[in-house]
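Hi, here's the filled form for the chain we discussed.

Project: internal
Contact: R.S.
Residues: 333
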Amino acid sequence: MVINRKTKVLFFSTSPYDPEQFKTFMRDKLDISFYKPNTKQKIKDIEKTHIVIGDWFTKTMLRKAKNLKYFFIPYSGIPPKLIDILKEKKELIVSNTHYNADFVAEHAFSLMLTLARKTIYLDQCMRCDQIPHIKVKKTNLFSLREKKLAILGYGYIGRSIEKKAKVFGMKPLIYHKQKSICTDMLSNEKKQKKELKLILSKSDFIVVCLPLTEKTRGLIGENEFKLIKPSAYIINVSRGEIIQEKALYNALKNNTIAGAGIDTWYNYTTKISATKQLYNYPFNKLKNIVMSPHIAYRSDLLETCRTNSIKKYLTRVIMEKKVENIIDLKRGY
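And the returned structure, exactly as it came back:
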């Protein structure tokens, strides 16, 4: 399809953008407009919109956008609610980007290192004018070297984690339908469950970087935590609901596992108040967890990388090249 000056591109995302970055970008071919989600502002010429850059849309808008062909989500993953909406338009080409895979992988390792080297505990000792040398001898400080690292999910983030794990001298164990530690490839659900149990039981660290789908929701629960070694740690930089919240809390509280590093949670709203936490159990009272508020994707390079990925995407569409990272809405990723 030939793109011309009247082709309308609509930015409709919760992520902030600098319109100046796109002011002169292919202005002879594209008509770019910016809107905020949930806005009451009237969207001009939505029926003429050809491309949407964003992570928010409504069924009413989708039905009005009769010429919409491309929907680009400016980060990895896709909101479940958006999947249900976009499914209505079968011919729609939905895709996303993975520019932040290295940022997320780095954050996963920051959580691992904080747990392995007891960084928070030592910092607190120093701030209280305590000399922790004697206590450190009794504290299990350890290296990542030679440790077995389970990587649950082998997309862009999983591959970035594997690459960095090898630099640390770790031994990656991959859980993925097309790449596994078993000699025989996974061909059915029973084999996948057997594979997961095997990997969980062998690992010193477990990093969750799977997409959230109906099959992965609640994948790690009470039974899975029983398989994990008491000395092992679990890291989640994917989606909170892949790990059952109650099971995670109980595993930490009862020391079923050594600890956890969690970046993704369970309660998300536009505003988190003092009385509304990201979690439903008192994780903040536990000493064997390191927490961060879903910021693994953040970086000083974020805005530049995101802008470049959007420009690359628009260029491919304009040049009529195949769109990368197409999402299968039925599978959810």
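Let me know if anything looks off before we file it.
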